[in-house]
Write a structure and sequence with these properties.
Blueprint lengths: L1 H14 L1 H21 L4 E11 L7 H14 L2 H10 L7 H7 E5 L5 E8 L2 H30 L6 E7 L12 H26 L8 H9 L3 E4 L2 H16 L4 E7 L6 H12 L4 E5 L16 E6 L5 H10 L4 E5 L6 H10 L7 E7 L5 H13 L1
Parallel strand pairs: 5-10, 6-8, 6-9, 7-8, 9-10
Antiparallel strand pairs: 1-3, 1-4, 2-3
Helix pairs in contact: 2-7, 3-6, 4-6, 9-10, 10-13
């Protein structure tokens, strides 16, 4: 059961593979185009060391002092001071936090100050200005603490240990990398979306259609999509369920009307010596034909040009054996199961369900049956 679910999952993805690949390629191309139009982004970083010198410190005091300075430098007022010192007084408030980042390292006492800009020069100027402002903030805060009680924080030192340098290249955008990443993610999302939509539409399993419907209805189910499957499914069905019956009503539900299955059942009957009468049981445009008196097996065909009520009426008139032929491409699993449960309610003896996916086989089998009949 679990293997069937996985296989069904993969088969659904394979069915929609052109759509999945096309959609992912379109999204990736759009991302690539947008990224190509975006301005480059440069980053540069300076580093400052914070050191408490007037006491024995296991790192906790230094770490606390560095964290305090990070918070002070990150205030809107001091970010504005950094921008002005870097020669960018017109930066909007919303841009300040995006352009300037102050973060504390895991090693106590070390702080990195990163500047970002559309040019390498702007990024470097912001990073170096941030380092200088941190030294100023430390002096101002130390003076304020000293004025308060004369001792606390008086020996806190800050030193620029690394000035920001011009970056060799932009950190972004990277159109190709981003397009490939987004394309792969889109492909996964679209693949899973195709599976989800197929499940929501209640389509018959692609991996085990016969098993899924047979478990739901208790009726032997076969899939036919080529000539070999016709031979494998219809002859055993005739021998096991139809050979002793006076006739069969073949009810077809789907988009394209076809008498292929009815013709092949009749053909199977002639191969075992039965005289067969074909009946057009489409009440919409025809009536039952009079049976050939020589016939001892009748095949009544109700194609999809008749609605469900007319099909059930035909079943009630010829209830000996009924074969339900469905197109799993146009009918949901629930619709097939519902019809399979309705047929016994009107007196029909449903002996088999055939999932028919023919491709140009209807005329071929009809012609083959006529040839057998004339012979």
């Amino acid at each position: 059961m679990f293997d069937s679910e996985i296989r069904d999952h993969l088969l659904i993805m394979r069915r929609y593979l052109p759509v999945i690949l096309g959609g992912a390629a379109l999204i990736a191309g759009l991302v690539y185009f947008i990224q190509q139009q975006a301005l480059p982004r440069f980053e540069s970083t300076s580093s400052v060391r914070v050191n408490v010198t007037d006491m024995v410190d296991d790192g906790l005091v230094t770490d606390f002092r560095a964290a305090s300075l990070v918070e002070l430098v990150s205030t809107r007022t001091n970010l504005r001071r950094i921008a002005e010192q870097a020669g960018l007084p017109n930066l909007a408030d919303a841009e300040l936090e995006e352009r300037i980042e102050v973060r504390q390292r895991r090693i106590p006492g070390f702080v990195d100050l990163t500047g970002r800009g559309s040019t390498a020069e702007v990024a470097t100027a912001l990073a170096n200005a941030a380092a200088r402002i941190m030294l100023d903030v430390n002096q101002e805060d130390t003076a304020a603490l000293t004025a308060a009680d004369g001792t606390v924080g008086a020996a806190t030192e800050t030193t620029i240990i690394a000035n920001a340098k011009l970056p060799a290249g932009p950190v972004g955008p990277r159109p190709l990398r981003d397009a490939v990443t987004v394309g792969l993610i889109s492909m996964i999302v679209l693949a899973e979306a195709s599976v989800l939509l197929t499940k929501l539409r209640d389509r018959v399993s692609l991996a085990d259609p016969e098993g899924a419907l047979q478990r739901a209805t208790g009726i032997p189910t076969f899939t036919i999509d080529n000539e070999e499957h016709y031979n494998q499914a219809l002859m055993p069905l005739f021998v096991n369920s139809l050979a002793k019956e006076p006739g069969v009503t073949v009810v077809q539900r789907g988009e394209q009307p076809s008498t292929a299955v009815a013709s092949q059942i009749g053909n199977a009957a002639t191969l075992v010596g039965r005289n067969v009468a074909l009946i057009d049981a489409n009440l919409a445009n025809a009536q039952y034909l009079e049976l050939d008196t020589r016939a001892n097996f009748s095949v009544a065909s109700v194609t999809s040009i008749s609605n469900e009520s007319e099909a059930l009426l035909a079943v009630s008139r010829m209830p000996h054996a009924v074969v339900l032929v469905c197109d799993p491409e146009s009918l949901t699993k629930s619709e097939i199961v519902s019809l399979a449960r309705t047929i016994p309610g009107v007196g029909g003896n449903l002996v088999g369900i055939i999932l028919n996916r023919p491709s140009g086989l209807a005329d071929k089998f009809s012609a083959a049956f006529r040839k057998t009949e004339s012979g």
